[in-house]
């Protein structure tokens, strides 16, 4: 068992890290609170959320009689997260800053700062996640690698954002809230004099954007590059955009001149064209085949991939969505993932996260998607027989009720015959 006396806790000013601090204190640890400032640029109203969050973090630490250190990781965040984001957006991808921040800042620079500079034996966070070493590392084994498990509260479970966390940091990380539900956490805060924090509105968006529209924010870092919205079905120009970096797949285009809602379906970076489709249920928005970059396996490469080359597990690419069954193969370029339920707007740049039996196995960046249902039906309805059979080799159409194919039960994947 690892002898732990001093724990460095990442404290944000929110209720989760506040209750994590309380639970650690109740167990008698010497707690060093650490407020990580990753962003220091004010919005258009001159407001920087980091200032308000630090005040709340200081209030919590004062209430619990815990020491607090303010550490500036702005440079690290800028170089290792934000610059990557800008490059990804310019390349037509839609990155996930939370995954990158956890991998590059919280479980890298914060971890090293806690161990090397503060002399901590372990770190702790308020994430809703669990590990095989227990919420307080009571099952720590120096001879074993640690496994990451989904939190008890499946709605708040944050293993999705931890899919790239390295073993070194994860082995020394406590997740005190892993076995708790969010309402329980809030009630503990209220019962222990932390009602001010429990009633605080939770931040849901990307921290550095705040209340601004994304297009207005990204314009400060990437110049507008006007191009066309093109209707996939009749290949006509239906509107203008100010840059592919301002749009993500599945997003409503809000082209004022159109009588019906159109949605972003594909982006052509070289031609600076955004291909749009009519209606949120258009089959071009749905696919069941995903390609990724090389994966990061948290514990180890799954044994089934070693034995038979196929991993039966679960997949998600959005934190708020439920896990869906899938089959995974690994190549020298990355993963090929076939999901059993068609997914809408699977977006290159986001992370494909895999889990099995409640364990988060790891994840990889989505690089592309396979042939959409639209492509198959489009070809078949135009009797392009030389191409359609080839495509069907790669996308097997299972005989299922149409309502089983996508997240939207009433989506009809019938032929697009225009």
> Uncertain regions: pLDDT < 50 for 5+ in a row?
384-391, 393-418
CATH class descriptor of the largest domain: Alpha Beta
Give the overall silhouette.
Answer: globular
Helix content: 25-40%
Which homologous superfamily in CATH is the superfamily of the largest domain?
HUPs
Structural class by sheet pairing and helices: alpha+beta
Mean pLDDT reading? 88
CATH fold field value of the largest domain: Rossmann fold
Number of strand segments: 18
User: Secondary-structure element sequence?
Assistant: EHEHEHHEEEHEHHHEEEEEEHEEEEEHH
Taking the alpha carbons of the first and last residues, their distance comes to 67 Å
Give the neighbour order of strands across the main sheet.
12-16-15-14-17-18
> Which value, in Å, is the CA radius of gyration?
23 Å
CATH architecture of the largest domain: 3-Layer(aba) Sandwich
Strand content: 15-25%
Q: What's the number of structural domains?
A: 3
Largest sheet: 6 strands, antiparallel, barrel
Number of helices: 11
